[in-house]
## 1
Amino acid sequence: MGLYEKYLLPKILNCVMKSPDLTEIRAKLVPEANGRVLEVGIGSGLNLPFYAGNVTVVGLDPSVELQDYGREVAARCGVDVDFVNGSGEQIPSEDNGFDSVVITWTLCSISDPVQALQEIRRVLKPSGKLIFAEHGLSPDPGVAAWQSRINPIWKLVGGGCNLNRKMDELITQAGFRFDALTTGYIPGPKFATYNFRGIARPA
Ligand SMILES: C[S@@+](CC[C@H](N)C(=O)[O-])C[C@H]1O[C@@H](n2cnc3c(N)ncnc32)[C@H](O)[C@@H]1O
């Protein structure tokens, strides 16, 4: 890992991901989580203030720098979080162990998103739910063409973030069906703001 990824990128991500538009989505979705929760790509813990009720959270992320921010947020908002260093493609947990999995703006950065989603399915109880909010491929051909053009450089500066993944297809491909799915642009440049959000369950 280079100096940019270790020192600068975590600060940038912690700042950018606090945007009011993303916060509004977090505030709507995250309270849907219940029971024992796994958050994949917990990052700097920006979902933590929105958990409702008596949840316990396992927060998985490969960035120890972002986890440090997350620990501060967890202490401030009094959520019980066990931070685990690891990757979504290989979740260090038993089968059927979680009532809910939360994943927000992270599938774009995971090298093998389908493997990560299959892992999520493995660790979710059969009655459990996957709560997700992700940006991805625009349905507008002009925007999609720009997303593919920009993607190689975006990936370099964005910590492996991809602009052009069709998130709904990836989620169903991994064996989920949607209880709720909302798609559309949120404010900001169209190449980075087409969002997929909702709740899915093991099919
Ligand atoms: C844009 S940030 C989003 C962080 C957080 N989910 C949020 O909503 O603010 C992307 C996150 O994905 C994490 N990440 C990257 N590769 C990953 C992987 N293979 N498995 C799990 N998380 C990963 C990064 O460390 C980072 O925390």
Note: Strands lie at 36-40, 56-61, 80-85, 98-104, 124-135, 176-185, 194-202.
## 2
Amino acid sequence: MRFNYGRSYLGRRGAIPLYLPELPLRPGVIEPLGGLTIPGCIRDAGPDSWGQRVVMQHLLGTGARDGDRAVFGPLTHLLRSGSDRIGALDFQEHAHVYVSRDETSAPLEDLIDAADRVGEGRPLPPALDLALLHASSVGGARPKVLLNADGGDVIAKFSSSTDTYAVVKGEFAAMELARRTGLDVASVDLVGVMGRDVLLLKRFDRVPGTQQRRALVSALTILELDELMARYASYADLAQIVRERFTHARASLRELFARITFNILTGNSDDHARNHAAFWDGEWLTLTPAYDICPQARGGGETSQAMMIGADGFRMSQLAGCVKRASTYMLTEREAGELIDHQVEVIKREWDEVCDRGRMTEVERSFFWRRQFLNPYAFEGYSSAPVQSRAGQGLTPG
Ligand SMILES: Nc1ncnc2c1ncn2[C@@H]1O[C@H](COP(=O)(O)OP(=O)(O)OP(=O)(O)O)[C@@H](O)[C@H]1O
Ligand SMILES: [Mg+2]
């Protein structure tokens, strides 16, 4: 897919490049960067597997099969998904006529029912079909809808019939604990609707009280990768870019390191490059609040993170390995250790209270505790920072 700025946009005062280096503000056709088939900043604004499924069902009805997704190229997904998409962009058939695809709404109960129907391949009443389409542009694999609540714009994520454990409650607990450890994280709330857990996330890509949208790009785009190359995504490479191109570079590196160790402490091994993003102002990048910190199902001991933590390719979900690579994030090993110890302390201290707020049953708590949250594997070879350790006792769980 090639891109061409319109002449009127190029002539507009205050126009910014959609993202650099991939789409510099200049006339003429611009090819995607090497190895990509579509500019990353445009791909970021389109649906992922969940939204593609909704678009497909909208276009094909219940006869749609998962394999049909490939029949529609990215242009169909961009042009048919809802306009209220993440970030600042929208996509239209015509250069001179703007037709927003986001007028319809429905009560949350109906939207959840509609999402269930899509998940199960059952037909949708037309009004609900359109209402569900509203959120189809939001990325990710899990079912979700958009709400315009009193307090602002909200993404609602809910449990799906195929969940084998309390995924949504787990995500709530991790997000809430992240905030309590001092991470900058999207605000969350957990509500029950028709016996279902629903996670409400305040959108950070809208300026509250205005119609204004904030431009952002995913780390996948920042790293100049696409989904097929996602396994090469590296926090260490991202850290290098943070040093060069981010506002508040030093603080952002510390935040990034803290997000990595928090992911490890809460069993979120699904920390792929579309689960990190940065605001884009035309010149500089600024880390967005953290989102999608979701403890994952896991088997035995060994686990790895979705992105490499060290420039040497290290990606094991282990704190000791993170501490060894602290300098990549402009931290000393002691600072890294102190940061981790603080996270562990807060998780231990706040766990019960957060579980209460997340309405977790005893069974759910013991499912997560020491499996996703504070899994012993994470602590192997790790001893707490020298200043905080008492007579050589490491803060290992036990
Ligand atoms: N609070 C927020 N404000 C703005 N955009 C957000 C927010 N939370 C998530 N997003 C955007 O929505 C997308 C989907 O959200 P999320 O990653 O939580 O969904 P998911 O279905 O769990 O994803 P995955 O497929 O990674 O499991 C994100 O990639 C991000 O672009
Ligand atoms: Mg995600």
Note: Residues 388-398 have pLDDT under 50 and may be disordered.
